[in-house]
Design a protein that fits this description.
Elements: H1 2-8, H2 19-33, H3 35-44, H4 56-72, E1 75-76, H5 90-102, E2 110-113, H6 121-137, H7 142-148, E3 149-152, H8 161-177
Parallel strand pairs: 1-2, 2-3
């Protein structure tokens, strides 16, 4: 009752806490309740919805493609052998030297392409043995090479003669004839050549 009289008389009621104590209490309450985290979370979004750093998602894909391309360097194709023999062509010998230089530094097997439809398994094994012997002559341990050189079917299906010819002419047309090259129609960057 006494308070009411004082208030009506114009006297303000006396505060029992100072302003600093009140502010400190509010700050402590906000800190404990975690309001600052909710504000930050609302700005950034939930953790599962944040974007990845640039390149993080696609890097794994590109690295897989690069690794597969490197592994393909260790395949000896049918056209790298002279006819139906286990002897390497000059380009095949150059490829063998490239493989021999890199073999110690990579985990990939050396693959000798089998003939289609297993036409001549004896020739496939003779080619494999020739590669093993040549790599052993170049200083690689025979036991390790014998375990790493394998025969396998072609990884990609080849093209028939008709498909190959169509692909060849399509490439020529796209590059030089129909304007799919640089600069529209023509063979130059600036458009039509007269």
């Amino acid at each position: 009752m006494e308070r009411r009289r004082r208030y009506q008389a114009g006297a303000r009621p006396r505060s029992r806490r100072t302003a600093a104590e009140t502010m400190g209490g509010l700050a402590l309450l906000l800190l404990v309740s975690g309001c600052h985290g909710a504000v930050g979370e609302a700005k950034r979004g939930p953790a599962y919805d944040r974007p990845f750093p640039l390149g993080q998602v696609t890097d794994a894909h590109w690295e897989t493609m690069q690794t597969n391309a490197e592994a393909a360097d260790f395949i000896f194709y049918d056209h790298e052998f002279v006819g139906q023999t286990p002897e390497l062509t000059p380009l095949g010998r150059k490829h063998l030297l490239s493989v021999a230089l890199r073999l110690k530094h990579v985990p990939f097997p050396v693959v000798v392409e089998e003939l289609p439809d297993e036409k001549n398994p004896a020739l496939d094994q003779a080619r494999r043995a020739a590669i093993v012997n040549l790599l052993a002559e170049l200083g690689h341990p025979r036991e390790e090479i014998d375990a790493r050189v394998i025969t396998a079917p072609a990884f990609t299906a080849g093209l028939s003669a008709v498909e190959g010819e169509a692909a060849y002419y399509r490439t020529l047309n796209d590059t030089y004839g129909t304007g799919a090259g640089y600069g529209g129609y023509g063979r130059s960057f600036g458009g039509l050549r007269r």
